[in-house]
Amino acid sequence: MRLVLMGGSLRSASLNAKLLGYLARTLEARGHEVSTFSGEALRLPLYEDAEAPAAAVQALHAALAKTQGLLIVSPEYNAGIPGHLKNAVDWLSTMKPSPWAGLPVLLCAASPGAFGGARGLMAWRATLANMGALALPETITVPHADQQLDEEGAPTDARTAAAVPRTLDAFLALVARLR
Ligand SMILES: Cc1cc2nc3c(=O)[nH]c(=O)nc-3n(C[C@H](O)[C@H](O)[C@H](O)COP(=O)(O)O)c2cc1C
Fold it and tell me: Does domain 2-178 have CATH number 3.40.50.360?
């Protein structure tokens, strides 16, 4: 399947970028065609009513327009969506055709905190619902991610590690069903 992964932060040591890389490699190893937009690739100009969106915005739009599913790997900032990712979503919501309508989305997060970024994902749900995207009920969250991601970005806690393939399978089943 064709899949896009989008997320991480603009920090060079982003835990979410690390998790995103691990998920991308896992999906590639399963034979999926994966495109990633992580960290600096999402340093986009702030939304304005420009005549034409920047090339980086157009590249993201083109990838989402042809993808069959999207994984968002998002930090939680003050129980919400970090500004650079919300800005990316806002740009995309102004572009035609809408890449969001009917798009299956798997929400993922990593945080040093005990909730693993789960509150931020609730904010994502409201935004995605507004655009007609279909967020899977299950999520991948990594609590204490500063201690519980290995060098490759794989979760080291046994319960979290076991949940990752299960949740990816549930997401891929949704994508296959909507295809
Ligand atoms: C402005 C700001 C707000 C934050 N708010 C939260 C929060 O509400 N919940 C949480 O779990 N972590 C919060 N954090 C901590 C982030 O989860 C932590 O910095 C994490 O490493 C960010 O993701 P990254 O490693 O991918 O950059 C916040 C961090 C910043 C800079």
Answer: yes
